[in-house]
Amino acid sequence: MSPTPPARRLRLGMPKRVFSQVLLMQVAIAAGVAVLATGLFLAPLSQQLDDQAMRRALSIAETTAQEAQIAEELQTTPPTPDGPLQKAAERIRKATHARYVVIMDWRGVRWSHTDTSQIGGIVSTNPGEALAGNEVMAIDNGTLGRTARGKVPLYDTEHRIVGAVSVGIAYDSVRARLLSAIPGLLAYAGGALAVGALAAWLVSRRVQRQTRDLAFSDISALLAEREAMLHGIREGVVALDRAGRVRLLNDEAHRLLGIDEEAVGRSPDEALGEGRTADILAGRVTGTDLLTVRGQRVLVANRMPTDDGGAVATLRDRTELEQLGRELDSTRGLIDALRAQDHEHANRMHTLLGLLELEMYDDAVDFVGEVVGDHRATSEQVTEKIQDPLLAALLVGKATVAAERGVALWISDRTRLPDRLIDARGVVTVVGNLVDNALDAVAGTPHARVEVELRAEGRTAVLRVRDTGPGIPPEQRELIFTEGWSTKEPPAHRKRGIGLSMVRRLAERQGGSATVGEAHGGGAEFTVVLPEALDDPAPEPALSAPVDTPVKEESR
Q1: Is there a single domain that holds both residue 306 and residue 344?
Q2: Is residue 216 one of the residues assigned to a domain?
Q3: What Pfam families is this protein classified in (predicted)?
């Protein structure tokens, strides 16, 4: 025979659902409060009933002792069952519903008692305090059981103590009053418990809806997963409460925004400072995929309101994508420039071939020298005035692109920039954005021209780019430096409204400035001042007459 399997144990424990746990705990709390309140009420009630019984007994004793014939008859009559004091005591006892009324002399001998056989005997409790002139209240055990007693001295007409009066009220009547109060009290406690249970049920139902009837363990697991997800994703998350204060930042948001945990509990303006990023997080700027610049980073922000009145903002880093986009633009420009040069080179070769076929050899030599000299002069002019190789290469390339677009790119004769730049890449970014912006502004206009002036004043670099375009209206001269603002259609691979904002941010990061005004003769003039941009100040060479030299003149 197979062994009988052991009986399954009945395991009692807390239910798993939040609704059941909250309801059970709240009902238990309500029941405990009801029991505690009942006990706290009954304890003083019992003491109060005892005190009332003793005072009632004392009052009856005082009233009895104030009758003049009681003291007189105590002195003139013997203690007998048929005596006047026994009759008077019984009359008072029946009228007041007392348990007993005992009249005694100064020796403690009874002159009256409920049990007539006790008359003439000594009282069972000590009458010393009453015979000494003191009033006594107590709960005592005597010949008639447990009673609430009151004792007072008995005076004659000359105010001498001749005895005492002791009155007792049956303690059973006091206990009966207490017991009679308990059902009503329990009814009130039961009603309070029912109201508490109903309130607990309503609260539990609300908690059930808000927690979607999950167990506490499930909620704890969800919170742990949420923390792991928030701090593991490569996208910044910023949560704000209904008052607009930051209440949560994940690790990526700390990195992208450059702030620490002190930002929690503060508004975006307090944590980030005034600017477009704070405006987007605060909801003052609305839309999807909003561009903003934070430090050297280009961010794409989206903000979504939550049911509790707050909001959650997500941040994506588009710095590398923006840089790739600009490199793509530059590559496309260079490809177009190379295509144009190839076309122009073919035309020149055809011209040279025609000169040779016509046996115009001297003209052919002059033509070749002129073409080669133009190219040599362009590179020499740039490198003579701009000694930084990255910046010089940028301007040579921009000159080719400008020529293809029918724009004359000039380097001012006031340009003098030694190879002392601390952050050459930053200056390249500033000049490249300003030149691109100027080329876009003058494209399609007659006699289009862009002039670049780069000067060193001690350790400060001053960068100016002028164009002959339509210019910038005064009311928009600050707006154009705002992230996301642009009057041009964006290309397919990226958005506009970033270049000039990055220029100002780079300048301000070095303690400088970026401004725009009206150029002499019309158009716009952008000026960027970069303090401490050069390592060591170099003496500026003597400036020649301010005659502008074209970078590149190409025949079509």
Answers
A1: no
A2: no
A3: HATPase_c, PAS, sCache_3_2, SPOB_a
Q: Are residues 340 and 275 part of one domain?
A: no
Please list, in sequence order, all residues whose beta carbon lies within 8 angstroms of the beta carbon of residue 322, skipping any fewer than 6 positions away.
298, 494, 498
Q: What is the pLDDT of residue 220?
A: 65
pLDDT, position 149: 86
Q: Has residue 175 got a pLDDT over 60? A: no
Query: Are both 364 and 297 inside the same structural domain?
Result: no
- Whether residue 514 is found in the same domain as residue 532: yes
Residue with the larger pLDDT of the pair 60 and 7? 60
Q: What is the DSSP secondary-structure string of 2-26?
A: PPPPPPPP------SBHHHHHHHHH
Domain identity same for 124 and 150:
yes
Task: Check which CATH number belongs to the domain holding 145 and give it.
Answer: 3.30.450.20
Predicted confidence (pLDDT) per residue in 455-506, tens digit: 988 888 999 999 998 888 888 888 888 765 665 554 444 445 567 877 888 8
Q: What letter represents residue 154's amino acid?
A: L
pLDDT in tens, 147-167: 788 999 989 888 888 899 999
pLDDT band at 541 (very low <50, low <70, confident <90, very high): low
Report the alpha-carbon distance of residue 177 to residue 230 in Å, rounded: 67
Number of domains in the chain: 3
Q: Of 317, 337, 368, which closes a domain?
A: 317
Task: Clarify whether residues 509 and 457 are in a common domain.
Answer: yes
Sequence-distant (≥ 6) Cβ neighbours of residue 479 within 8 angstroms: 485
- Given a contact cutoff of 8 angstroms between Cβ atoms, the answer to whether 103 and 163 are in contact is yes
Spatial separation of the C-alpha atoms in residues 548 and 412, rounded to whole Å: 5
**pLDDT value of position 466:** 92
Check: pTM over 0.90? Answer yes or no: no
DSSP 391-429: HHHHHHHHHHHHHHTT-EEEE-TT-BB-S-BS-HHHHHH
